[in-house]
Amino acid sequence: MMKKYIAERYQEDFSTPMGNSDFLLDRYDDVIDFSLGDPDITTDGEVIRKTMQDALDGHTHYTSFQGDIELRQALVENLADNYGVKYSTDEIMVTTSGCHAMWLALESITNDGEEIILHEPYFTPYPQQVLLTRGIPTTVPTYEEDLFQIDPKRLEAKITDKTKAIIINTPNNPTGACFSRENLEAISKICQDRDIVVISDDIYTLYSYKSSFVPIVSIPGMKERTIVIGSFSKDYAMTGWRIGFIAAPKSLIDIVRNINENNVFTAPSISQRAALHALKDKERIQAPMLAEYRSRLNILYEEVCQTPKMSMLEPMGTIYAFVNIKQTGMTAEEVAEYLLENAHIVVLPGTAFGEESGEGYIRFAITVDDSVIRQAFARIRQTELFNG
């Protein structure tokens, strides 16, 4: 029944707009690429050297099904330090990336036809991941005038007797929004009152510029109903290592482990060692990354403010800028195409992240350095559309 529903509504097309970036880059030989959130900073050299030595020392075999015990212990300590929440190693599952962790979590909790709420704009793969686990994605729009926070009344209006969970992503891709404690407390109350699971996609915890990151799992009463998704991709510049984790009640981790045993068996052992070394040296590794991306985002914000027909909220978090282009009178896709053809710049249209909240916006990933950001906006302001 669900396969028929998916086929009829989505024509079994699970591709995402982000999959087209390689084609766009091939159209011109001087393209500046703001499309994908792959940090241009290479993984820390000391982490690489220690991991190479681990490989030579024999860390090339299967680990425990739930992950290298040293890494799980380090994650427990890191969560206690950063979240103020106590976990045991039995409540940690190491996964092959954050995306894999999200799929495992959804596969573990979703029964056929159950609804998973997404706040829009959302990370592009979410709806497809829900559909692949035979669930039904439903969306709650968020708006710039609300700083892209979730309106509790809109959230409650989307809840039905089929609602199983809500996916929370803060700091948020694509908007950069950081949900306030008050907002998270309101969401938590609704989820506790209505017995809804929270999947907290905590991928950008390092990049919260205005105030400290607030994990929803730290709010009283939320640990037992929250599945935390973590990743080393953005917070440690380790996208290619494909390593992530789930922190959740042991009963859920047991299900996740059984599913994963029949999926990829274990996360790559050598990537797990790299993650362990990164955690052990996180202060030295993360401080310059945070400073660099904060600087880049502030520079891009200044450039946007100087560009006619563009605006954006003051940067709050992540490595993205969600730029308002409504004054152009064009759609997000039209503006993205215009910038490619006339300035040789690749951005993603906001509608890639949801049709309602994403229209009228384009997303920049600040994965190029300061000089390239300035060069890009010099090109933009030379176009007829954005020259004033």
From TrEMBL:
Molecular function via GO: transaminase activity
Keywords annotated in UniProt: Aminotransferase, Pyridoxal phosphate, Transferase
Family matches, as PROSITE patterns: AA_TRANSFER_CLASS_1
Residue span, Aminotransferase class I/classII large domain: 30-380
EC number: 2.6.1.-
Domain of life per record: Bacteria
Transmembrane segments: none
Entries under InterPro entries matching the protein: Aminotransferase_I/II_large, AspAT/PAT-like, NHTrfase_class1_PyrdxlP-BS, PyrdxlP-dep_Trfase, PyrdxlP-dep_Trfase_major, PyrdxlP-dep_Trfase_small
Enzyme category, top tier: transferase
Pfam families in the cross-refs: Aminotran_1_2 (PF00155)
Essential cofactor(s): pyridoxal 5'-phosphate
PANTHER family cross-referenced by the UniProt entry: ASPARTATE AMINOTRANSFERASE
Family as reported in the entry's similarity comment: Belongs to the class-I pyridoxal-phosphate-dependent aminotransferase family.
Protein name listed in UniProt: Aminotransferase
